[in-house]
Amino acid sequence: MDSDDTFSNIVRGIGFVVVGLYVFWLFAVPPIMAWLSANASTLMLIGAVCLVGVVGFGYWWVREDVRAAERRAREEEVHAECLAREERERVRREAEFAESQRQRGLVEYRTMEGKVVWVPQEQLEEVARRDREEAEARKLVNRLTSHIEGFRPSWSNTCEQDYHRELQGYIKGRFSDARVEVQTGSSRPDIVVGNIAIEVKGPTHTRDLQTIADKLMRYSQHYDTVIVVLFDVQVNERRYEEWERGIKKTFGDVRIICL
After folding, report:
1. What pLDDT, on the 0 to 100 scale, is given for residue 228?
2. Residues 160, 206: Cα–Cα separation, whole Å
3. Collapsed DSSP state (helix, strand, coil) of residue 189
4. Dihedral of the CA atoms 164, 167, 170, 173 (nearest 10)?
């Protein structure tokens, strides 16, 4: 029963649509067609104006992209010319400086770091020797720093001396010339390797950080490089970062290792 009613409703709806379209065709389409015929020239003019506008806008859009690309190319060309001019000026100044140094009887020496220095001929051999020694010292510092960074204590110690003993044994396993608490003037670093002093702290609290600056002042008078090893740092992160920046700004090439 329900299906018959649904079918009847569909047929009735289709009938209404057909009748409505027929009425629209009889009464609405003829006036519309008559109006279009009477205003055909006006409509064509409006269409032509719209078409010209769309084409003109498209042309302007494309030309704007081209002009932007041309501007960028000119700017890049000007920038490249400025760089080339600055490079020529730098080369000219370096050539003039080199010539003035040669006139003073100095010779050019390039260090193992790539820096150029001018020294008297009679001092060239000594400068080269010192440069080699400094390069070897830097290599030793880098090797020692990398070795310490790989150290991990066997357990979480609560006493600084426990950290000392473990780290000392670890370092001596690779660097046999490592010495412990060498007295130099009023300084006594925890570990000494060559001309490198190693200061160990742990567990590290704020008061421990405060004592390191004083030791660095003394160590720097007797050692070329100082490495600070901090275990179990228990300091506010912001305070620690400020302390680290201050230490490096004040004492230069100080290696700080947190384990």
Report:
1. 92
2. 15
3. coil
4. -50
